[in-house]
Design goal:
It is a single chain. The chain contains 6 helices and no strands. It is an all-alpha fold. It has a single domain, classed as Up-down Bundle (Four Helix Bundle (Hemerythrin (Met), subunit A)). It binds heme C. Heme C binds next to helix 2, helix 5 and helix 6. The site of heme C (HEC) has 21 residues, from helix 2, helix 5 and helix 6. InterPro entries: Cyt_c/b562, Cyt_c_II, Cyt_c_prime. One of its GO terms (molecular function) is iron ion binding. It holds the Pfam family Cytochrom_C_2. One of its GO terms (cellular component) is periplasmic space.
């Protein structure tokens, strides 16, 4: 019966969707992608790739500051080393991971403050430092292809 087929399709769609929602790894992904997008926009704006619009840059920095706090509660292994899909590197050095997460948030606050100056000369080093704190954590904790 076509009705049954439709219902089954709906159930599978729901199941797939529910699965996606329930994985912390999948929940982190859009946050990280948005962080990358905002940081690249700021970097491009103060390095001649995009036109410098002080208001857009300040808005991106505010967004980045909010995003910088969001991935870390989604790492269950910080609470429980036995958590599903735990990242072994984080399990081995949770304090270092927390320190790097805090460092990112410090850099994001500093960047947001400096964007209020509207001065690209001041924003350039701040976005550089923020990007270094991304790389520093990735070098230690992000697995290849992850
Ligand atoms: C405290 C550690 C840490 C910091 C700081 C950090 N990341 Fe990550 N990032 C990770 C880990 C670990 C992964 C691997 C995927 C995961 O764990 O969800 C990752 C993955 C990513 C991904 C891939 C996401 C995906 O699932 O495809 C992007 C993009 C990314 N990070 C961007 C950034 C940007 C941009 C910054 C800085 C503004 C940043 N990250 C700062 C730890 C960090």
């Amino acid at each position: 019966m076509p009705r049954t087929v439709l219902t089954m399709a709906a159930i599978f769609a729901l199941a797939a969707c529910g699965d996606e929602e329930s994985t912390p790894r999948k929940q982190r992904k859009p946050i990280f992608k948005d962080m990358l997008r905002q940081s690249e926009f700021i970097y491009g704006s103060v390095n001649g790739k995009d036109p410098f619009d002080p208001q857009k840059v300040a808005a991106a920095a505010t967004a980045l500051q909010q995003l910088a706090a969001q991935p870390w509660p989604l790492y269950a292994e910080l609470q429980n080393p036995q958590a599903d899909h735990a990242n072994a590197r984080i399990v081995q050095a949770p304090e270092e991971f927390r320190r790097k997460a805090a460092e990112l948030q410090r850099q994001a606050s500093a960047l947001a403050a400096v964007t209020r100056s509207g001065n690209p000369e001041l924003i350039r080093p701040a976005i550089g430092q923020l990007q270094q704190s991304c790389t520093s954590c990735h070098d230690q904790f992000r697995k290849r292809g992850n």
